[in-house]
Structures are given as C-alpha cells and as structure tokens.
Amino acid sequence: MNLCGGRRQPPATAGEVDAAAREVVEKAGYGSNYLDMVGYGVGQRQSEFYPIIGKGRAEIIEAGMVVDLLLPTIYRPGTGGPRVTDVIYISKDKNEILTDYPRELVRV
C-alpha cells in the first residue's frame, strides 16, 4: 500500500502502511536502521498520536483522517539521518500531501 498515489485505498491498518514502507527500506538494504514508529495522527493538536503508524500496529487508517509520516526514518548509529515530515489527508479516492517544500535531493 502507498498512502499517496496508492495501490490500495483506505481503510488499512497502521501496520499495513508501515509494512509497505518497510518493504522498500529493506530492499534498499537499510532495514536494520529503520525506526519502529513512522508516523501518527494529526488533529486539533499538532500531534494526536493516534493512530500510531508503526510495525504491527492495528489502528485503522481511514478516509477523512490526517496523518503525519516521518520520512525516511532511517538512522545510522554514530551518523544520524534526515527527517522529512509529510502531512497527508487520507481520502476515499485520492490522498493528498498537505506539506509543500522542495523535494529535490540536495548534495553538499
């Protein structure tokens, strides 16, 4: 499943969303550096914390929700890693990324 542009639309469990992301990370060889929690719900407060999107989580992601996904959530011990946060509105037909920033890779 892919929350934005996805192969499957909601509802889905938070664990299914995590598993789809985890599959990509594992194939790239970074599975051991991937965090167990990759996102959470957004509501009246900045962070509602539910649903928690992570490994094996059973909370349901459904149309009308707004979630915050921490991407790429891959960290190397002693080095660290980037954290880019996407806020996504979950729709019945098409999900929408609400955050707006440049997405091009910047090499220094």
UniProtKB/TrEMBL annotation:
It is an enzyme of class 3 (hydrolase). Its EC number is 3.4.13.9. Signal peptide: none annotated. InterPro entries: Creatinase/aminopeptidase-like, Pept_M24, Peptidase_M24B. Gene3D superfamilies: Creatinase/methionine aminopeptidase superfamily (3.90.230.10). GO terms for molecular function: proline dipeptidase activity. Keywords: Dipeptidase, Hydrolase, Protease. The keyword Protease applies. Residues 10-91 form the Peptidase M24 domain. Transmembrane segments: none annotated. This is Xaa-Pro dipeptidase.
